[in-house]
Specification:
This is Trehalose-6-phosphate synthase. By secondary structure, this protein is of the alpha/beta class. The chain folds into 2 domains: about 220 residues, Glycogen Phosphorylase B (Rossmann fold), CATH 3.40.50.2000; about 210 residues, 3-Layer(aba) Sandwich (Rossmann fold). The protein is built from 16 helices and 15 strands. The C terminus is likely disordered. It binds GDP-alpha-D-glucose (GDG).
Length: about 475
């Protein structure tokens, strides 16, 4: 068994299944794979240093080795806040109006990828499998190859790959894609992203791609595939049995006093469609005044990327909208929207989901969206809630039994809310069991195994 080397912008220290703390499913899933293969997880520590030295901080926690580096403040500004979060993130979520194309950002991005390669390369051994994650690190594979890496190197993109006509607005787009083609296996969240990438390669670079989604590029065999990510099902369900989860469920049930609860849980990010969602809920209350006293909308939105102006703006917009709707619809003893600007433990989220009749997930663009899957997993099989899901989330193609909506259309969301509130128990059960089957089968473990097997396996082996 080859050793697995995982590389991502940030490293979250895997603590093992069931460990306390707000830990993502990705950390748990990769943690078990890293433990089994005695692998290493490499990335930025999140810390800054005045002068980059390339010194690594190696730690071993619960059988997993992590290796982290500190970056200079200028690196963080140009690579992370700049090129990653102000250029690529908006562009890849089809928000070219927010994408900033600055030469310094591009330079910082290249420099940090070089720094990653320079410190990572000496750590690697010839038969290591290297798995690079996400848009922060597109050029890393090429940088490793330049240093002589002959390893199998895979890349997984957690966000959507944009349509060709938007992507070409990126200066040096061709150079970026050519670096991506240095990987042996390139994974996307869904077929649409895969198609967008293929079309770009065919039309802009004149490359021929086989029916097996593989191509020959500069003497190597490169394969492209969709690997839809899932939640850590077992860990999440285990957490649902905890006291914390039960207590959280009770808090919502008691304080909502029989009202039908709509829940949203999203990082405060413009890709999640929050202002549009607030407008749709406002319209729902305006159109169906008799439902105001019977409904409670709880929106949990922990702030993220606070150093970026567009993220500060969206926060202000949402405060204003929530204030306006509550101002218009509240009674002395009733407030229809609870907008909460903080994060909760995963186990508490389980309880919140379970207490809610509707899970409202309406991103304008989303690679997958794990909240949709968590909502489904947390439901009571005897009295499940209804998932209302944006057609533009990667999850939509996996969860067709949800009520699928257009997040840009207030009517579409409004109608789905009415349909969900009025849905008979039998239909709720039927839809939920179909959703649950998919969430359970396509969990994060399945995703991880499929990717690693494809990276090792024949599909992506060099020819000849
Ligand atoms: C990127 C892609 C893709 C949220 N609030 C709290 C909290 N969360 C957790 C959720 C969920 C996770 O954060 C968010 O995952 P999403 O998938 O919804 O979205 P992104 O953060 O944008 O993730 C996305 C994902 O990568 C994986 O590939 O699906 O498309 O954009 O697990 O529960 N967790 C805790 N407290 C909170 O308040 N503990």
């Amino acid at each position: 068994m080859s050793r697995l080397v995982v590389v991502s912008n940030r490293v979250s220290v895997p603590k093992g299944r069931g460990a306390a703390g707000a830990q993502g499913g990705l950390a748990v899933a990769l943690g078990s794979a890293l433990r089994e293969s005695r692998g290493v997880w490499f990335g930025w520590s999140g810390e800054e240093t005045d002068h980059f030295t390339g010194d690594m901080n190696m730690q071993r926690n619960d059988g997993v080795t992590t290796a982290t580096i500190d970056l200079e403040p200028q690196d963080v500004e140009e690579y992370y806040n700049g090129y990653a979060n102000r250029t690529l993130w908006p562009l890849f979520h089809s928000r070219i109006d927010l994408a900033e194309y600055k030469t310094d950002f591009g330079r910082g991005y290249e420099r940090v990828n070089e720094r990653f390669a320079e410190t990572l390369f000496p750590l690697t051994e010839v038969d290591d499998l290297i798995w690079v994650h996400d848009y922060h690190l597109f050029p890393l594979g090429e940088r490793l190859r330049r240093r002589g890496a002959k390893n199998r190197i895979g890349f997984f993109l957690h966000i959507p790959w944009p349509p060709r006509n938007l992507f070409v607005s990126l200066p040096y787009h061709e150079r970026l894609v050519r670096t991506v083609l240095e990987y042996d296996l390139i994974g996307f969240q869904d077929e649409e992203s895969l198609e967008n990438f293929e079309l770009y390669c065919q039309k802009e670079l004149g490359l021929e791609i086989g029916e097996d989604h593989c191509l020959d590029y500069e003497g190597r065999h490169v394969c492209l595939r969709a690997f839809p990510i899932g939640i850590d099902f077992d860990e999440f369900m285990e957490g649902g049995k905890s006291k914390q989860a039960k207590e959280a469920e009770r808090r919502i049930r008691e304080s909502s006093r029989g009202r039908s609860v709509i829940i949203g849980v999203d990082r405060l990010d413009y890709s999640k469609g929050l202002p549009e969602r607030f407008d749709a809920v406002g319209r729902f209350f305006d159109t169906y005044p008799e439902r105001v006293t019977k409904t409670l909308y709880v929106q949990i939105a922990p702030p993220s990327r606070q150093d970026v102006v567009s993220y500060q703006r969206i926060r202000e917009t949402l405060e204003q909208k929530a204030g306006q709707i509550n101002g218009a619809q509240s009674e002395v003893d009733l407030v229809p929207i609870r907008y909460v600007n903080r994060g909760y433990a995963r186990r508490e989220l389980f309880g919140f989901y379970r207490a809610s009749r509707i899970g409202l997930v309406t991103p304008l663009r989303d690679g997958m969206n794990l909240v949709a899957k968590e909502y489904v997993a947390a439901q009571d099989p005897e009295d499940p809630g209804v998932l209302v899901l944006s057609q533009f989330a990667g999850a939509a193609s996996q969860l067709p039994s949800a009520l699928i909506v257009n997040p840009h259309s207030e009517e579409s969301i409004c109608e789905a809310l009415v349909q969900a509130q009025d849905m008979p128990l039998e239909e709720r059960k039927q839809r939920w069991s179909e959703l649950m089957e998919s969430v359970r089968a396509n969990d994060v473990e399945f995703w991880r195994k499929s990717f690693v097997e494809a990276l090792v396996g024949d599909a992506a082996q060099p020819k000849g």
